[in-house]
Every structure is written in C-alpha cells, then in structure tokens.
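# step 3/5: fold
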Amino acid sequence: MGKLSLKRVLQFIAAGLLLPSFAYAHVGVGEVSGFMHGLTHPTSGLDHVCAMLAVGLWAAQMGGRSVWAVPLTFVGVMALGGALPMLGIGLPFVEQGIVLSVLLLGVLIAAAVRLPLWLSSGMVGLFALWHGHAHIAEMPELASGIGYALGFLLATALLHTIGIASGMSMRWIARERVIHAAGAGIALCGVYLAVA
C-alpha cells in the first residue's frame, strides 16, 4: 500500500474535528471511583479498547523505537489529559477526538503508514489527551482520583501490551496482511462509533 502524506493525515484529523457530536458519550457514565473501576473502565467501552489496542498494534507495525516510545507517550500524555479536568481546564472535541482516534489509527494500520517517531508520538499524544480527559471528567468530584487514575493507566498499558504482542505475532505468523485487516476492522469500529 502507498504512503499517506503528512498533508493527508492532517486533513483527515481536521475533518474529524468538524464531525457532529457523537452518541457514544462518556462524561458522567457509570461507576468511576477507586482502583478497580479505573482498571475496568478502559475495557468496558469499544472506543477505548479499539484505540488502546490500535496504539500497540501500530507501534508494533512500525517497529524500532516506536514499539516502546509510542505507547509510553500515550500513557504519559493520557495522565496529563486526566489532570486537566481536575485543574478545571476543559478540552474541546473530546468525544470527536476519541472517535477520530479509533478511525484514524485503524486507517494508519490498514494502510501500513510509518510516520517519523516524533510525528507518530505527537499524534497518539493528542489522542491521549482526549482519552485521559474523558476518563477523569467522568469521576465524581468527591471520589478519590489516585486509585482510579492508577487503574486506568495500568489498564491502558496492558491493552497497549496486548496490541504490541498481537502485532508482533501477526507479523511472525501471518505477515502484514493480517495486521492490515485488523486495522481495517478498527477503522470500521470508528465508523460505527461515529454513526451510533
């Protein structure tokens, strides 16, 4: 498959930000206090699971330093994104950004796009801001956020690890075609989330 230009990737991101609001809302949904709730929350939504697995899968597909740098960037910046609502700082386009992360990461995997490390890390960092913000914005004001934050950071790291392991085993067992198909499936989940 051919390379996607930086201009095309940026146009895709801009178009995603202009999409209407999505029905897959996060803020104020479900139990959100304590370590166990933080640990289970990222695994309870299709959007989060797809995005977290996609980050690991894309990192494995790119190889090299991306295998550890891209997922670590996501986890670190997600913690920062989670701190924003605690400081009273809002973030625009949270829902659109989360859906866009699933859609765009799926497309990048399906098309086997290999971006420079600084750009791929920056892109997942932007997505991580939205994911982190959504996780903490759901937490009641009186809840203890430390346990919850540690839980969702650990769950995110575990999902990234599963994505990396899956990507590496797909490359070893079945070549790149299976990874491309997985990326297409993730992109379709992004489309589903956008219209659900």
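# step 4/5: annotate
Residues 28 and 95 are 13 Å apart (CA to CA).
# step 5/5: archive (pending)
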